Amino acid sequence: MTTQPFANTSPYALLTFQQAWEQIEQRLDALPPQYVPLEGAGGLVLAASVVASSAVPPFAASTMDGYAVIANDPAVDTARGRRLTGEEAAGAPSRIPIGPGECRRIMTGAPLPPGADAVIAVEDTREAKGYMIATLEVAHGANVRPVGSDVALGAVVLTEGTLLGPAEIGLLAMLGQARVQVHPRPRVVVLATGDELAQPDQQLVPGQIYDSNSYALAEAVRTIGCQVERSHHAADEPEAVEQALREAVSRADLVITTGGVSMGTRDLLKPTLERLGTVHFGRVATKPGKPLTYATIAGVPVLALPGNPVSTLVGFEMYVRPALRLLGGKRPLWRPSVKARLLHPIKRDRERLDWQRAHVLELDGQWQARTTGAQASSRLLSMVGANGLLCVAPGEGQIATGECVDCILLERVESAEVPW
Ligand code: AMP
Ligand code: MG
User: Fold this and answer.
1) Site to substitute for ligand 1 among 290, 305, 308, most atoms within 8 A of C-beta
2) Ion ligand 2: residues, CB < 5 A
3) Are 83 and 67 in contact (CB under 8 A)?
4) How confident is the model at residue 3 (pLDDT cuts 50, 70, 90)?
5) Are 92 and 226 part of one and the same domain?
6) Per-residue DSSP letter, 266
């Protein structure tokens, strides 16, 4: 391939992270609503409020195993008690009315037979010779769930924007809704680019390295509940990159690429994205992630991450995850941030916001942080086991031991075994 000489200066403005994120957010809407089966809808967001189409319970039901009765029934035989007229099981109502002086065995969840208005718990009774004697009388309505007492017919039970978890899914099932209108799971295509990439099951030839980014990214996408497809990596040839991008945008709601976004003569992502769509930014004052690029092709967002493995995963955390949340109808939240006290000094970057990987631990209400060692953006080990991302503002010199810095708590924090 014949290449152009190096370009020494980038034509792209250097944005702050905040400015870059605004460019992304402006162009992302929640995916159009779809009906999906209830099973598997967990983690998705409701696209419309849910009105109860039936009452719960749909019939007056016993809350106890006991006897269905007429409360304060004047016709009860004072010596023998109430006359037993059979049994009501859950799911199998007899529909035979209860008359004065009568009772019927009833199980929890069974419909109250016509005429009965209360249930006496079995613990408060004695049964003999076809009669039941109550040791405790009950009032009208005792131990009965009236129709609609849990959910009233027509009530708004879930509002648009609600995240579906086990309770919400259960409630929809309780109302007999087999499908639910949600913002669907975003479909993501991960495209690794680079002539040097081999797959982990291949033999390396000189100059090659294994493609780790597409595996790391696919896993990251999967863990936040999106659908992911790892595309075959594209060579650093204009046609290959163009073809791979065209295919990716045709079947994705968001495309992530890695590699090929910086100043090398074989860095083809930016020019190809310019040709196929619109590049909204191409440089951000962060470390790692300076050449990170955002484009849209026919409305499909493309986040082109730099190839270094740490840049890729930090890029996922700071850009891709909140972007996928937006597509899924959620707020673009980052993980929670705390102030963490440094256990050793940290050198600032003069111009860029530095996202340093750290082990953090809360001791007596105070977060403490130690970085994960050398912070080169190629050193994926700096990310392995990290449970914090320090946000070190640009400036001169060092931040001293004991000073506090903002720290994003990565998901692993709950299970972290911090190796101090
Ligand atoms: P680039 O962004 O293409 O300039 O790549 C920056 C560095 O990341 C280079 O050392 C690449 O070899 C490396 N790299 C690029 N893509 C991958 C990948 N998929 N997996 C692991 N390393 C990569
Ligand atoms: Mg490259």
Assistant:
1) 308
2) 194, 259-260
3) no
4) low
5) no
6) T
